[in-house]
Amino acid sequence: MKAILYIGHGTRSKQGAAEANLFTESVIKKVKHPIQQLSFLELTEPTIEQGFDSCLQEGATDITIVPLFLLAAGHIKQDIPDALAPLIEKHPNISVTMADPFGVQGRILDAIAELVTIEAEPFSLNDSILIVGRGSSDPSIQESFHSIAQGISQRLGIKEVHVCYLAAASPSFQEGLDSICEKASGRIIVIPYLLFAGLLLSEVKKEVKKKKKQVHSILLTGALGSHQVIQDIVIEKANGKENASAAASH
Fold this sequence. Notes:
This protein is an alpha/beta fold. The protein has helices at about 15-30, 50-55, 75-90, 105-120, 140-155, 175-185, 200-210, 230-240; strands spanning about 1-10, 35-40, 60-65, 95-100, 130-135, 160-165, 190, 220, 245. A five-stranded mixed β-sheet has the order 2-1-3-4-9, sandwiched between helices. Strands 6-5-7-8 form a four-stranded parallel β-sheet, with helices on both faces. Helix 1 packs across helix 8. The mean pLDDT is about 90. Keywords: Lyase, Metal-binding.
């Protein structure tokens, strides 16, 4: 029997965990498979092992892993496969495949442009955008964010689009925020490139609120998980409309 195991990042934030659960509950209603479970890589239960075991207890013989991750960094390339490896070894008769993370997709960039438009239209040529990524030491992440920044710039017609990171890459969020505030002649629009609320988004909100005391024309958009297109992508992955690869090979 076919099962879907969704894997979120996990968070110490109750609001973030609740958002991930609500998001997945909404997806589950639109996916055809009878066995569907949500699990988390860290900080939140159920764990990947608990979610995997739950699928087996419901009679799963074929499990598709659907990671709720925007980009392919260390968690996708290393941590999730490492967590799955002993489970796959323990249950060699269970077929396990893993869908890709979302990656840089035109429709995600369209969704971000729409979110920004709702929050900040009309735009001025003097406006600036700061995209805030989670961050990773994986160089492919910075390449991805370069593409994301270009795509947002093209869609919104704003030339000044910059990227910063909350961890493990530079410039840091604080450096990026300070720099754009010093140079901007128009409004500043801050886009957190995060799926759900959590401690990272809380940190962004706190710093933006502090900056508002000095720079009044600064706006912050919401997390990306609120947009329907993100849910649509997960539904497609769960329904097998995108290619999945053997989890053991990741």
